[in-house]
Design a protein that fits this description.
mainly beta; 13 strands; Porin; 253 residues; 13-stranded antiparallel beta sheet
């Protein structure tokens, strides 16, 4: 009995010792010279969600035979992989670029309903898909706070905001699109885009690397309609723009 009691006491003391070590304040500062670097490099990976926005014109009020009467965007998930470079301007302002490859395979861009060719209101709903591999090249200003203590580690974290402009290049834009019955159709979405973006993130300064989870929103500025659409699929639209939501983890140093 005494042996079992002694064993329990030893286990409790050991547990308390480990807990004290885990939750005690440490004065060690990881990467103390990081803020003195004129620039640093890194890599990124994550997921993002994309969908199109449509500005409809008066053809939607009085659609003609064979024209689009309804159109809805379809969300597409991408895997993103990138490299990053950050240039220090001041202690709180930095310039960052993060060329990124977005991979999704086939992108279901939107679904639409056309009026039947006999003039009736019988719906004919189709899903419009395009091959899509996108290269994003953003140029952003990063506004960061001072480092602060968290989780009982000295100067381990800082938060930041980021805003800038992004250039997008869709490598699949010259390939034919398809609709849900397998029929080939010319691609009516342009392959180059310009967008402004805004986001926020938090940096964790660990012993050998800086880990920064980040959320960013992108809003297209360019009309993506191709005006040489042979069947006037997008003739009832005044503008098509892109939207992206990114969740990215940056690994730097």
């Amino acid at each position: 009995m005494q042996y079992l009691l002694r064993k329990q006491v030893i286990i409790i003391i050991a547990f308390l010792g480990f807990a004290s070590a885990a939750f005690s304040q440490t004065d060690e500062v990881f990467q103390p010279d990081h803020d003195d670097l004129p620039y640093y490099l890194g890599m990124s990976f994550g997921l993002n969600n994309s969908f199109l926005s449509f500005n409809r014109n008066t053809y939607f009020l009085m659609p003609s035979t064979g024209s689009i009467s309804t159109i809805q965007p379809i969300q597409t998930m991408y895997i993103n992989l990138g490299l990053s470079g950050t240039l220090k301007l001041t202690n709180h302002f930095l310039l960052r670029t993060n060329p990124t490859l977005l991979i999704s395979g086939n992108r279901n861009a939107f679904s639409y309903t056309t009026l039947a060719t006999n003039g009736t209101n019988s719906p004919n709903t189709q899903t419009y898909s395009i091959p899509s591999v996108i290269i994003d090249v953003p140029f952003d200003i990063k506004m960061q706070s001072d480092r602060y203590t968290a989780f009982r580690y000295t100067d381990i974290m800082r938060h930041y905001l980021i805003t800038g402009i992004k250039f997008g290049f869709d490598l699949g834009s010259e390939k034919s699109a398809t609709i849900n019955n397998g029929q080939s159709y010319p691609n009516v979405i342009k392959g180059t885009d310009i967008a402004y973006e805004i986001g926020l993130g938090t940096s964790f300064y660990l012993r050998y690397a800086t880990i920064s989870p980040e959320v960013k929103f992108s809003y297209g500025l360019r009309d993506l309609r191709k005006l040489n659409d042979p069947k006037l699929l997008v003739s009832s639209l005044d503008k098509i723009t892109s939207n992206f939501i990114y969740f990215t983890i940056h690994i730097e140093n």
